[in-house]
Design brief:
2 copies of one chain form a homodimer.
Chain A: H1 26-39, H2 42-53, E1 58-60, H3 72-84, E2 88-93, E3 96-101, H4 105-114
Antiparallel strand pairs in A: 1-3, 2-3
Chain lengths: 116, 116
C-alpha cells in the first residue's frame, strides 16, 4: 500500500466506538479501515510478530530480513508501512535501525473490533 | 477484493497464536491477512456495525442500502465478501435476505491481534 494512505494509529484513539456497539460513522470507518489495511499483509504480520517475540519487543533490522525470505528493500518497505501506521517505532543506534512494538497500537485495533 | 481470495474465518481458529506471542508462520500469517483484508474497507466496517447494532444483531438487506449512500449492487458485493469471509451469516426469509453477525468471528480476529 502507498505510504500516503497511512495515518498514525493514535488517530484511532478518539475516532470511534467498538464496531459492534453502534453504527460507525464514515470518518471513523475510514480511519479504522486504513489501519487494518496496514496490517492485512502476511509479511507485515510476520514482521510484527518477530519484533514482538524478541527480548524487550525490539529487534534490529539485521534480524528481520532473513526469516521472511524476502529481499532487504521489500522488508524495508513493509517496515516503513508499519512505522507510518504507528504499529512500530524505529530508532537508529550506531549502524543499525531498531524496531520496537508501539505500546497499545495492536490493542487499540483489537479493542475496536472485539469490544472485549 | 475478489471472493476467491476469501476463506471462512473458522479456518483461523487453529491457524496460529496471537501475533505478539511467537513469530507467526507463513501459513497462519497468510490466513490472518486474508481475514483482515475482508475487514479493511470502510463500507464493510459500517455494514458490520449496522448489523451488530440492530436488535438481535440481525438486519434485513432492505435496511442496509440506504444508510451508506451506496448503490444496491455495491452493497450486495460488500455483503458477499463479509459472508464469504465468515463475518456475517445470510438467511433468506420470504422476499428479503437477513444478515446476522457470525458468533465469535470478530472476537477471533481481535484475539489474534490483541492477546487480551
Amino acid at each position: 500500500m502507498s505510504l500516503t494512505e497511512l495515518l498514525p494509529i493514535t488517530d484511532l484513539n478518539d475516532c470511534c466506538a467498538p464496531i459492534t456497539r453502534e453504527p460507525m460513522k464514515a470518518d471513523g470507518a475510514e480511519k479504522l479501515a486504513r489501519s487494518l489495511k496496514a496490517l492485512a499483509d502476511p509479511a507485515r504480520l510476520r514482521l510484527l510478530s518477530i519484533v514482538a517475540s524478541h527480548e524487550d519487543a525490539e529487534a534490529c533490522v539485521c534480524d528481520l530480513t532473513e526469516p521472511l525470505g524476502l529481499s532487504q528493500p521489500t522488508v524495508s518497505h513493509h517496515l516503513k508501512v508499519l512505522v507510518s501506521a504507528g504499529y512500530l517505532n524505529r530508532e537508529k543506534r550506531g549502524t543499525w535501525a531498531y524496531y520496537s512494538l508501539a505500546p497499545h497500537a495492536l490493542e487499540t485495533v483489537s479493542g475496536l473490533l472485539g469490544d472485549l
